[in-house]
Request: fold
Amino acid sequence: MQLLTEQEAKKIIDTVLAHATADETSVAINGSRTGNIRFAQNMVTTSGERENLTLTITTYFGKRSGSVTINELNDAAIKSAVQQAEEVARLAPENSEHLPLLGPQQYAKAANYSEKTAAITPTFRATLAWASIKPCREAKVDGSGYLEDTTGFIAIGNSRGLFGYNKATSIELTTTVRTADGRGSGFAVQSFTDASKVNSKAATTLAMQKAKASASAIELPPGKYTVILEPAALAGNGDSSFLSNFMAALDARNADEGRSFFGNRGGGNKVGEKLFSDLLTIYSDPTHPEVPTLPFAPDGRPQEKVMWVEKGVLKNLVYSRFWADKQGVKAVPAPGGVIVAGGTKSLEEMIRESDNTILVTRTWYMRPLNQQSLLVTGLTRDGVFFIENGAIKHAVKNFRFNESPLQIFRNLEVVGRPVRIGNNLVPPVKTKDFNFSSLSDAV
Reply:
């Protein structure tokens, strides 16, 4: 797919607006090319590319709205889609929380695009896969993994003069290694904007070390332990992680209306209160060089640098435009990614300075138990180890845990050097009284 340039996208948006007769009209164009390669049992199993291009038109008559999405960009298709969106809007019920569309905005220049990633070929993907498969074959372990790269753009505009354009790239490699007897498992992940930074051999070497070390795991009784959570244990698994559950709870309306931990019983929220360890600082910044993200929210609000938690103090919550207008405060959109500020210590240094501590490589299959306390349950996976006198003494059998990110962030003892996981920058953390509720037979 040929990415639309900023000028090409603006021309299409102008065409939509020229056909519109509604009180207000907003437009979004999304285009992407996503490639992937999957391997298992030391061989490539699937590979492919997919392309997608959509044009979404939303029209408004007063507080009534209607949307239509198409994947054709010729004038006849656009005109027909505008008419359909307006027909839907006239029939729709009123939205009592509708606000007028935003006018022109200023957006930061985010460096979230890499020509090297945009130029990826199937051969490049196969080369990275082979760099992971080859050492696994030589070591007689089973390697599997998934590599996905995306190149795309987003353009937004409306009848009040707003326009925004951004093109972006990303690439992520996950690899899992199992010992031949199936008793040991290791995992590693790498996420970047620039594909040239991916080192699949290094990731696989780390996963192999974990797999071999975890093959002779022994049982420890469930209970509360001091743990080191690696970045993939704190923020892995996409929309199901300790970090993602924490960030999703930072909604001002839920807090103000008493539906979340961040609300007060008598009304209002806990912004300004000291809730967590001094070691916890979380912020977002669309221009951060290691985790640049989209510079605007879907509704056109600019993404800016926002401090969410600073030295344990809650500093901000996410506000919709409606709720911010009602409360008389600034409308702060949800971030595209977050940075958990860390220190300079490596994971290895944290291990050397620990005793009677459990190291958790990864968490998995996380499900909510209590929305108010953010309590979740899940499983450890791909390597759990017991640390004694600054060294890994032996592997530990997997656990099920019942734990909340609120407790993890209250009980922080050490915060290490951050690494990128998806669109987030996350350090390994050491926290006390982590609750392992039962043993798991998973590997």
